[in-house]
Structure formats: structure tokens, C-alpha cells
């Protein structure tokens, strides 16, 4: 069982990172142009991952370090990683949140100060895989960790629900007996 799950975890994280790097060429385009995408992928000397994978790495680092979710550490890990590589394509929100946290705001309050009703973008869902991998066998903890990890940058309930649904989808993709 251990090797089976380990392979699925590795595949999940690698697949997300590769998909992110392949999709980076077309991120932000209004219309998908297959020929444009193929041309850029084929001519690329290397593929560069975006903020989505960069923050996924931060989620994984924090979960491993703390053996579970710790919001303050996860927020500080995001900040540390962002400061090392700010060129990963971050939108305007996360750097503002990071600046507020560095100035003394709590990780719980920072995103609400920028977006009073909470950002409901898909950024939290894009980085959720490590949460799903850690809590695959406890869906209550999975939902709680998904919500709180989302809250750091995407505090709107729709953003949190989207992240939780994506985490459930990751777990469901394992096709584990007992998950319905």
C-alpha cells in the first residue's frame, strides 16, 4: 500500500508541476490557440513553472516541516519563497498580502484587508494538492486545512470551497476503496 500511494503522490505533484509549466505559455490568453501553444512548447529550451507550482511547493514545505497545517508558518513560507523568486507570475494580490504580513498583520487578517469580502480567485485551488495528499484519509481535516490554507490569500468562501473541491477531486483520483 505504501509504494502504491507514494507513486500516486509523486505522480500528482509532478503532473501538476508539468501541467503548470506547459500551460504557462497560454496563461492569460482569452482564446486557446493550439498551434501557438505547440510552437512555443516545441521551441522552448526549458519549461518554467509559475506561481501556482511555486506556492504548491510552499504548501508542501510547510506541511512537512510542521507535520500538518500551520497557517503562520505556511504564510511565512510563501513569503520566503516569493522573496527568492518573485518572477514566477504572481498576480497583484499575494505580494500585497505578503507585505502586510511582514509589516505585522496576522495571516488571518492580511488578505481581508486587501479584499474585504475575500479574494475568490482560483489560486488557492491551484496549490491545494499537498493538502489533499496529507489528509487523503481524513476528509474533515482535509476540508479544514483546505479552507485555512486558502484563507492566507483567498479568504472568500467561494475561493475556499473551490480549493476544498479540488482537494476532494485529487483524493478521488486515487480511487481508494471507501472514498465515495
Comma- or semicolon-separated keywords:
180 residues; mainly alpha
Please provide a written account of the structure.
The chain is mostly helical and 180 residues long. The mean pLDDT is 92. It has a domain at 49-173: ADP-ribosylation/Crystallin J1 (ADP-ribosylglycohydrolase fold). The chain contains 10 helices and no strands. The protein is globular and about 45 Å long. The longest helix is centred in the N-terminal third of the chain and has 22 residues, at 2-23.
Low-pLDDT windows of residues: none
Number of helices: 10
Helix content: 55-70%
Sheet with most strands: none
Overall strand count: 0
What does the average pLDDT come to?
A: 92
The SSE string, one letter per element, is HHHHHHHHHH
Structural class: mainly alpha
Distance between the termini: 19 Å
Summarize the structure.
The protein is mainly alpha-helical. It contains ten helices and no strands.
Topology:
Blueprint: H1 2-23, H2 34-43, H3 51-66, H4 71-84, H5 93-102, H6 110-114, H7 123-126, H8 129-134, H9 139-151, H10 157-173
Helix pairs in contact: 3-4, 4-5, 9-10
Amino acid at each position: 500500500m505504501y509504494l502504491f500511494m507514494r507513486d500516486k503522490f509523486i505522480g500528482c505533484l509532478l503532473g501538476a508541476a508539468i501541467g503548470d509549466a506547459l500551460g504557462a505559455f497560454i496563461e492569460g490568453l482569452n482564446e486557446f490557440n493550439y498551434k501557438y501553444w505547440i510552437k512555443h512548447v516545441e521551441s522552448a529550451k526549458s519549461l518554467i513553472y509559475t506561481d501556482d507550482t511555486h506556492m504548491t511547493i510552499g504548501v508542501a514545505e510547510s506541511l512537512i516541516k510542521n507535520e500538518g497545517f500551520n497557517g503562520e508558518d505556511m504564510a511565512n513560507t510563501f513569503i520566503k519563497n516569493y522573496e527568492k523568486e518573485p518572477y514566477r507570475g504572481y498576480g497583484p494580490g499575494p505580494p500585497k498580502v505578503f507585505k502586510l504580513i511582514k509589516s505585522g498583520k496576522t495571516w488571518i487578517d492580511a488578505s481581508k484587508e486587501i479584499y474585504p469580502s475575500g479574494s475568490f480567485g482560483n489560486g488557492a485551488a491551484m496549490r491545494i494538492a499537498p493538502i489533499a495528499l496529507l489528509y487523503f484519509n481524513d476528509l474533515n481535516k482535509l476540508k479544514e486545512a483546505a479552507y485555512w490554507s486558502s484563507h492566507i490569500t483567498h479568504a472568500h468562501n467561494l475561493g475556499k470551497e473551490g480549493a476544498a473541491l479540488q482537494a476532494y477531486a485529487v483524493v478521488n483520483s486515487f480511487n481508494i476503496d471507501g472514498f465515495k
